[in-house]
Design brief:
Layout: H1 5-14, H2 25-33, E1 43-47, H3 52-65, E2 70-73, E3 85-87, E4 90-91, H4 94-112, H5 121-136, E5 141-145, E6 162-165, H6 173-176, H7 180-187, E7 197-199, H8 204-216, E8 221-223, E9 228-235, E10 240-246, E11 250-256, H9 261-280, H10 287-296, E12 304-307, E13 311-315, H11 320-334, E14 339-344, H12 351-361, E15 364-368, H13 378-384, E16 390-393, H14 396-406, E17 412-417, H15 419-432
Parallel strand pairs: 1-5, 1-6, 2-5, 6-7, 7-8, 13-17, 14-15, 14-17, 15-16
Antiparallel strand pairs: 2-3, 3-4, 9-10, 10-11, 12-13
């Protein structure tokens, strides 16, 4: 057993060597041993390619503003591991992580001795979260973000009140499939028998897959653009304003503090989810909490301004769709300024398409290495770029410092790519501030 937080964390992270092992058998085994905590939790399950964390954050912020006790399970973390399991928006304490690791460790050892094999890092953390929300700190509702895909993701042992599929993009294709239909099939795997589904999926072929899966499970589907809609009113200095309408109500003016047209879609999904809780699950969430919760919702590393003069933005755009949303936002907000980009990514992404988009908006582009098992090498990234003003650094700290020192005050410095990279940059900036 572990006696310190550091020992517990080292053990959890040591399981990364087991990689990704899709399937629910190990999770079901652990749930059985823990006396089925997943059955004791009221939950919302949030899947999709992009926007899962932001959608979860809007829902959480609205409910917490009303005084509801909300647990959330998210990934990856930005500043500290404990963020992955939080209550009331606050990461759980080190001693709680230690207790959870000690609760799950004997199960992991026992499971390793069966034909199912050892649980992965993500399975261990998911089991910790479910056990925590059910047995240690019971919450009014828990929000679970899918890790990868949906159908075979370890979070898929929960029985939610509501499932949300934000959107479908071409990501994790080596695991989920190389087209929208195949990826939609994996994401639709979170749909449970008779459980309503909210979705912001746009592609017709992906929507068909989700509608078909829902029909099979006798689940009612509510689609963004059909049963609930929004109109983008304007971009404010700090975020976006929009109107909203669904089958229950309409609102003329709502505001969010996370910039980007894509964030309005995430916020609309969250409003519909909260409406659902009000209408069908006896939650009583006021209009004031809806508005205030939306406005104060904050999720780090999503078009986040971390410095002024020059403006420095951190954005975890880690796939083609994320980069597209980032570039659209930069062109909309800063078309009259020079934009300097620092980029790091995982090697298994569609790097050529991502870099092509960044090349178009950048005045200069710098590629960097960072310490992560699947990180792409900057010397390879720089070869993909067609930009006239490009550079590659092995030390990302040196690159960020150099760009901070040389970017003109009127220009924009954007650090983007893998969320694991953004996490490193954010921690480094905090230490140096």
């Amino acid at each position: 057993m572990f006696t310190t937080y550091e020992e517990a964390i080292d053990w959890i992270h040591s399981r990364l060597r087991l990689g990704v092992k899709p399937g629910l058998k190990r999770m079901e085994w652990m749930m059985e041993k823990l006396n089925h905590p997943e059955r004791r939790i009221k939950a919302i399950h949030i899947g999709g390619t992009n926007g899962k964390g932001s959608t979860l954050t809007y829902v959480r912020s609205i409910l917490e503003t009303e005084g509801i006790m909300v647990g959330s399970f998210t990934s990856p973390y930005i500043e500290q591991f404990n963020e992955r399991i939080s209550v009331g928006g606050v990461p759980i304490k080190d001693e709680e992580i230690l207790k959870l690791a000690n609760d799950i460790y004997p199960l992991a050892v026992e499971l390793e001795g069966t034909e199912l094999g050892a649980p992965t890092e993500f399975e261990v953390i998911t089991a910790m979260a479910i056990h925590y929300f059910a047995h240690i700190e019971p919450v009014d509702i828990a929000l679970f973000e899918v890790g990868l895909g949906g159908r075979l993701d370890s979070t898929n042992v929960i029985h939610p009140l509501l499932s949300i599929i934000t959107n479908i993009g071409l990501d994790h294709m080596q695991i989920l499939g190389d087209n929208y239909k195949d990826i939609a099939f994996e994401k639709a795997g979170i749909i449970k028998q008779g459980t309503p589904v909210l979705t912001g999926v746009k592609q017709e072929e992906a929507s068909e897959v989700i509608l078909s899966a829902a029909k099979e499970k006798q689940s009612k589907v509510y689609q963004l653009g059909k049963q609930f809609t929004f109109e983008h009113i304007l971009s404010t200095e700090t975020g976006e304003a929009f109107s909203y309408k669904d089958i229950f109500s309409e609102r003329d003016y709502l505001e969010i503090s996370m910039p980007g047209a894509h964030q309005v879609e995430n916020a609309a999904l969250a409003v519909m989810a909260v409406e659902f809780l009000n209408q069908y699950f006896s939650f009583v969430i006021s209009e004031e909490s809806m508005k205030a919760g939306l406005k104060k919702a904050y999720w780090p590393g999503r078009f986040e301004t971390v410095q002024h003069n020059p403006i420095m933005i951190l954005d975890g755009a880690h796939n083609e769709e994320g980069i597209s949303a980032l570039c659209n936002e930069l062109e909309k907000r800063y078309s009259d300024r020079d934009i300097h980009i620092i980029f790091a990514a995982l090697a298994d992404k569609k790097l050529d398409e991502m870099i092509k988009q960044l090349d178009k908006v950048a005045k200069s582009i710098t590629f960097v290495n960072f310490d992560f098992p699947r990180a792409a090498d900057s010397s390879e990234l720089v070869k993909i770029s067609k930009h006239d003003d490009k550079a590659a650094y092995t030390d990302w700290k040196e690159a960020v410092q150099a760009k901070k020192d040389t970017t003109a005050k009127k220009d924009i410095l954007v650090v983007t790519g893998s969320l694991y990279f953004i996490s490193e940059v954010k921690k480094w900036m905090k230490r140096n501030s």
